[in-house]
Design goal:
Blueprint (H helix, E strand, L loop, with lengths): L8 E3 L6 E3 L3 H59 L5 H11 L2 H10 L6 H13 L13 H36 L4 H15 L2 H15 L23 H7 L3 H38 L2 H8 L4 H38 L5 H10 L3 H29 L8
Helix pairs in contact: 1-13, 2-3, 5-6, 5-9, 5-11, 5-13, 6-9, 7-9, 7-11, 8-9, 9-11, 11-12, 11-13, 12-13
Amino acid sequence: MRSAPACRASPSTASGGWTSGPSPSEARLHGLSGRAGRLATDSAATGGEAALSSLQLFVARRVLLLGPMLVGITLLSFVLSQAIPADPVTTNLGEQAAGDPQVVAAFRHEWGLDRPLPAQYAVYLWNLAHGNLGISISTRQTVWLDLQQRFPATVELAVVAMALSILIGVPIGILSAVKRGTLVDQVARVGALVGVSVPLFWLGLVALLVFYARLGWAPAPGRLGATIPAPPLVTGFLLVDALLAGRVDAALDALHHLVLPAVVLSTYNLGVLARLMRGSILDVLAEDYVRTARAKGLDERAVTLRHATRNALIPVVTVIGLGFGRLLSGAVIIESVFAWPGLGLYAFRSATSLDFPAIMGVGIVIAVVYLVANLLVDLAYAVVDPRIQVGA
């Protein structure tokens, strides 16, 4: 009979005796597990690098598409501006000066209106490629400088309006979904419907009539009171510049002037967010994993806030991102009503004076904001729901 193989022994430094060493099968198993661990680590690293490169490729593609889309937007803006049944010569010179042929010829030559339309558009594209948006007919300075002076005021108004829309609209939508069928739900739904339906210009005029003319709660239209010296210009945002200069009085006055137009501007997005959040929450609450969470005994508040809200935010993120661009375009009406010296008022005055370079400059800025907002929305999807592959 063959005897069993003796177990190989190795000295133990811990006890001074002898202990049995690992068998060859154990050693091979240990080596395989080590190689598997290294392969898993390398695979995770490779996957992370692939995801990063995919995201970078996605962003690069979107940035490259920005150029052709801007060209299309400029072409559309140019065609629409030329289709207006009005003469910029008469609008800017007046009827008396427009009756002088020499004055009219000099004006057309100065602004390039005597060239054929394709030549005018080609010159505009050439200047745009070199960072030149042209000269404003109304202000007689570069359109780029006009936009730099007025864009911060519009962004400040739009950011505050968007913040109000999110901070009020999203909780109202969640509360309306949780209290479905109750009086709270009915009031929230009616309020959201009113916010979506009421025209902004009418609401702005009524707000001025009630809160400024009758009650005296709101200040006069504008960004700052006539008796408050403006803070030093640093960023163009009055609230930020006033705080940087330590001017608490200017900051409070700027905030006072900002509240009413921001509230009026936020009403449409607020109503949209409330209605969309309500419907999205109701859809998520009907999912199986939510019923499972309830069956496990989780608190209803935890189920709604922790499990349902995040998954319901995906369509809301789209509205938030694209709604910011909508706020910039909607600011044309609000800034005209509240005499807010921003991009919207500049666009309104440029349109009434047929200032074609200024009109096209405003159109390009709003288009860029829309495109950037759309890109940020796509990237935000991966944050809200990690299952979504942005670069796919």
